[in-house]
Amino acid sequence: MNRLARPLARRSTARTLIAAVACATLLAGCGGKDAEGDKAAEKPSGGASTGAAEAAFPVTLPNAWGKTEVEKKPLKVATVSDGDTDIALALGLVPVITPDAEDGGPVPEYKQRALTKLGAGKLKKYDDTDGTDYEAIAAEAPDVILGMNTWSMDTDYAKLAPIAPVVTFTDKAHSDTLTWQERLKTAAKALGLTAEAEKVIAANEKATADAAAAHPEFKGKTYTYAVVHPEQITFMSYADQDPGVFEQLGFEKTDKAKSYKADKNAVSLENLDELEADVLLMTYPFGDNGLLSAKELESNKLFQSLQVVKGKHYAVIPSENTLSSAVAYPDALSAPWIVEKLTPILAGAVAGK
Question: Cys-Cys crosslink for 292: which of 64, 134, 296, 321, Cβ 3.0 to 4.6 Å?
């Protein structure tokens, strides 16, 4: 997971962020009684022949709690996080059940696109407000459970393992540190879709490379990315933060980024000049629960005095459409959509519009 967003609450497993924020694999099925949804869930994905896929099984994967053994190609997949739902969707699978990452709200655009492409209707979801609903998952009798994007596996594993093989990380620290590509590859191996995963990664890399090539003005420009949390303004683009989409598009961190790290990232109102860069990007995912609103920050005299603000090279990454959340937690499904939506915002900021 991109450490750029580590202070943000993770989608599906920690709700606070998408009071105005959310991001990665595998959609829930349309419901046990929906024939079309069941058919989609059972259809082999990735273009590989059933015979070739079956030949790759059984598969044994180590995990932080032991090992996962998948005897034959899974047809019914359950997910325990929104990121795992996205993995499945990116691989062409519709999960039989998934957590309600949207809390009953609208499905993000990139996810709806995938559902439409797969010919799926509404996902079958369980309420995960109080955590993973083991009974709801068990009722769907999944062949495998994806848990590559969750922070609660230490609690969940013992209760999920008796239901179905659990595909998760090999080290508990990986809940924070794995890239979306690594999560996708592990899940794909358990699903017999390794070749499809490589295609997804290649397509996403091409989308980013094409955007960077179309905007040579991005190359070498410094950027600061900051998030307004309830207790502080957080300097997200700190020095050892994993290179995210900004740098993939050609931007570079500022020298001031060296003064910040994951556990030392607060910017006080007296030090707003620390945000100075060629391009400044802010986001307000907590809405009224944030330390201050965009209007309040933009009326601050020190903020107004920044050269990046004076030159209109400042932009807000919206949270209402889940873009700020997706930037925080990119995954196989959201990555190309992030580039699509973020590129014009960055172009406008570089141009001073």
Answer: 296
